[in-house]
Amino acid sequence: METGAPTTAKPSSLRWKILRQALLRKPTDEQSAIGVKRITRKTTQGFNLIPSNLVEDHPTNLTDATACYTIPIDSAPKLYLTQRVVDRAELSDFEICNQYNIDNTGLVCQWPSEEALAYFCLRNADMFRSKSVIELGAGYGLAGLVIAAVTEASEVVISDGNPQVVDYIQRNIDANSKAFGGTRVKSMMLHWNQNEKSNISSTFDLIVASDCTFFKEFHNGLAQIVKFLLEKVRPAEAIFFSPKRGDSLDKFLEKIKESNLCFSITENYDTEIWKRHNQLMNGDGSWPSYEKDHCYPLLVRIAL
Ligand SMILES: C[S@@+](CC[C@H](N)C(=O)[O-])C[C@H]1O[C@@H](n2cnc3c(N)ncnc32)[C@H](O)[C@@H]1O
Prior knowledge:
Layout: H1 11-24, H2 29-36, E1 52-55, E2 64-70, E3 78-84, H3 91-100, H4 105-108, H5 112-123, E4 132-136, H6 142-150, E5 155-160, H7 163-175, E6 184-189, E7 206-210, H8 219-232, E8 237-242, H9 248-258, E9 262-266, H10 271-281, H11 292-295, E10 298-303
Parallel strand pairs: 4-5, 4-7, 5-6, 7-8
Antiparallel strand pairs: 1-2, 2-3, 8-10, 9-10
Helix pairs in contact: 1-3, 5-6, 8-9
This protein binds S-adenosylmethionine.
S-adenosylmethionine binds next to helix 4 and helix 5.
């Protein structure tokens, strides 16, 4: 995908497009080495709220690289997240996508909304104190890891429906286990459409998610999972960060309404994120394709 945001094309056609690109492209050794330096587009296209730098600790593994995130709070631990380097899609990725009826957007990169969600959580750490939290569709799991590292949440479960993504989440949990203090942290394979809801035995006070509302085929399943989790604990709340992205957020919110859930949308929810947004709108050059509808995450709060 070339733009800074997922498109609304059908997941199956997107998968074939990416697969075709992956198969046609044969990186030379030199290109592979350069690839290690480019984990995701986030390094050049994002809000730059949580500074990160590459840690080159995979000299024999050209598929992955690790970035070190410096949480902008005094005495906060650094976090290490292993991610795919750009352009290293593999045939097995698409076999797994087909087998599990899921896309590979979680492997493509860490999307900018995830950083905004992570930043919002660290700036609002009080709301997580002693709470049990689940992140849905977490990708590499930055927000869940930040919540575990800087808030006093009792438990953080970082979930995704793509088993390969869940492997990365578990690796990232293991790599940062010393940063979590007394907070219990787990990964979970949770597909919004396929999981028997009765398999979710835990209860959660807070549900967080970023950039999970553009898959129209999963809107209903996602709304049902949110409803199921909210009904288990009262009061509970879901915090979604999502760009509007055409009509995709509105369509998801229609499903939320049909599920008899309430929601509110806030555009300006953090002074720093709003400042970065305005700088990007004024063309500061750090994210050339930036435009509000596809890139700026709105804060959506959902409750019973
Ligand atoms: C656009 S990515 C966002 C990832 C991460 N939150 C971020 O912003 O970087 C969407 C994530 O949702 C996951 N996902 C997509 N469809 C899903 C489904 N039906 N059930 C569970 N997870 C799903 C993908 O595997 C992917 O990790």
